[in-house]
Amino acid sequence: MDNLIRFFQLEAADGLLLFWLKESLIAVIIFASFYLLALVLGHVLVTWGPRFTSFTKTDLDDRILRRVTPPVSLLLMFAGLYFAVASLPLPEKAHVITSGILFVINMIILTIIAYRAADEFLQWYAARMTGVESSGLRQLIPLVEKLISIFLIGTALIITLKHFNYDIWSIITALGIGSLAIGLAAKDTLANMISGFTLMLDRPFHIGDRIQLAGGQIGDVIDIGLRSTKIKTLDNTYLIIPNSELCNTVLINMAFPDVLSKGRINLGVAYGSDISAVKALLVNTALEIPHVRKDPAPEAFFVSFGDSALNVSLFFWVEDYTKVFSVTDQINCLIAKRFQENGVQIPYPTRTVLMEKD
């Protein structure tokens, strides 16, 4: 009887051993298949990938291919290991722990692949931006990278928690309430940041442009940040203006649509002066200044009858708005000289008082 029991025990042990050998062989075949697939795919991506991407006009696909090839091969290997372990008849607790670890590793690798592709695209896009006007957009690149990282990590975390049968809706609800509280506490900062995005994308002005604010201040744009914009005024002082105020106000961009600018000089001549001769003298005087454009040519207009003078305006154009003040000074000095030479008088304000006797 003991020998019979021992015989059945040996038969059961042999059957169990054969079962484990069979399952282990299947797991090895699964892993080996994925391993070979990873090697083949890596070889194809390294050898044949550049040949296919060479047909495109941009090098973006080449750069992304180089960045994602190593983790893609690694992802296939760990995916094969995950399915191989899943096929083994392990105890439930050991199976949950082992497959869970491998699932987390696969999610990490997949997140790295997505981040590398997005990062390569942003670096490629930043390298294509040239000129001063692109400096504001360049400031967005690090912020966009951080937002993409947060999004990818959050997505991977939600998928992982869902895989382990955790209630993700309670976490999403808590995050939503927390975000709402943070948004209410920092509404002014968020408003300025959103306005900064608007200024950088809509670009009503660029760095280096001269603008005039609704309050009358004139200055050059030095920096467009996420919270505020810095403007250097003509008297060499800095204005730091919150972006939300700039988005909700009326301003004049002197550098748009081009840097060509128009100047104006108002003056009065004595009653009795030859207005046609005065207008011709003003135009010829403006043309003597090197920075005044001949096309469009300067123009002079008889504007109105003043209390003690005939009011005349001279309009002229210069190549650059930064030279309007200096050119105005030169024209004024030369007008005073030419008026003196030609006997044109600029009268003082006068008032006649009549005294009547009883």
TrEMBL record:
Primary residence: membrane
Domain Mechanosensitive ion channel transmembrane helices 2/3: from-to ranges: 146-187
Membrane-protein topology: Multi-pass membrane protein
Molecular functions per Gene Ontology: mechanosensitive monoatomic ion channel activity
Protein keywords: Cell membrane, Membrane, Transmembrane, Transmembrane helix
UniProt entry tagged with the keyword Membrane: yes
Membrane-spanning segments: 25-48, 68-90, 96-118, 139-160, 166-186
Record's GO cellular component terms: plasma membrane
Positions of the Mechanosensitive ion channel MscS domain: 188-254
Mechanosensitive ion channel MscS C-terminal domain ranges (all copies): 265-346
Highest taxon of the lineage: Bacteria
Location(s), subcellular: Cell membrane
InterPro entries tied to this protein: LSM_dom_sf, MS_channel_1st, MS_channel_C, MscS_beta-dom_sf, MscS_channel_2nd, MscS_channel_C_sf, MscS_channel_TM-2
Family: Belongs to the MscS (TC 1.A.23) family.
Listed PANTHER family: INNER MEMBRANE PROTEIN, YNAI-RELATED MECHANOSENSITIVE ION CHANNEL
Listed name of the protein: Small-conductance mechanosensitive ion channel
Gene that this sequence comes from: mscS-1
